[in-house]
Amino acid sequence: xxxxxxxxxxxxxxxxxxxxxxxxxxxxxxxxxxxxxxxxxxxxxxxxxxxxxxxxxxxxxxxxxxxxxxxxxxxxxxxxxxxxxxxxxxxxxxxxxxxxxxxxxxxxxxxxxxxxxxxxxxxxxxxxxxxxxxxxxxxxxxxxxxxxxxxxxxxxxxxxxxxxxxxxxxxxxxxxxxxxxxxxxxxxxxxxxxxxxxxxxxxxxxxxxxxxxxxxxxxxxxxxxxxxxxxxxxxxxxxxxxxxxxxxxxxxxxxxxxxxxxxxxxxxxxxxxxxxxxxxxxxxxxxxxxxxxxxxxxxxxxxxxxxxxxxxxxxxxxxxxxxxxxxxxxxxxxxxxxxxx
Length: 341
Known about the structure:
Layout: H1 12-35, H2 41-106, H3 112-118, H4 122-193, H5 197-215, H6 227-237, H7 256-266, H8 275-278, E1 283-285, E2 296-299, E3 305-311, E4 314-317, E5 326-329, E6 335-340
Antiparallel strand pairs: 1-6, 2-3, 2-6, 3-4, 4-5
């Protein structure tokens, strides 16, 4: 007869352990949810603005490296041109010296005393001998010139090689800065993508309102700092609404220093490309009250942002990615000083 055994019941200890484990898992899940809440729209905007600020600082370093690359490239081209011309001159000198040596070889190289003894016209021979002495002196001078040219050419080649090494280093730095900018912008875009479509639309509406407010900016009775400053400011005004693009210097898009350097170029004035260099391009003005229209305005402690003073406490600048060239209050950013070109 088959026996019927009661199924073995889990021990009280085992039940207690399982219950405690499940409770701990629920508690950890709850804590994780509380510790990592979805950031609000304002928090995302704050983080994005910070990343844009860091990207702009990296952009100005990128612009500086790009400007330096252009200068070094011109120096390399000039040196290489000098080397090529120097080599041509050296070849010409060598060819001339070689022609004289060949002619002497073909004449047989007879001892001068023997030639005088055999000559039927000693006076004519002596005249020729004097000419040969002069020719020998010219050969010696030509040889010295060749040696000097060789030394100069070697020096120019060494200088060109050093500049090429500088160019390679600058190109590497340029690539690193570009990558840094792109990384910051990608991080900002990832944050923006974490928002809902409604939240992104609200941020876009905020930018549109800022653009509309720019069109109504009251510049007061602003007086240009100079005729050329006024011309540069007018050029910048013509670009209101143009998009901010990192590394761009016009004519259809700009970053901050790209706008100021482009505008001054339209007024016939060449200023450096980066905001840090533009900070040293003229007389510094530390009082906001002393600023005049067309003066440059430098922002942030590392001087990574620049715009035009527009008048009545307003600046005209290319603000950040996703924004257009527009007027904003000078108090929106940490003012450092103005620069009168």
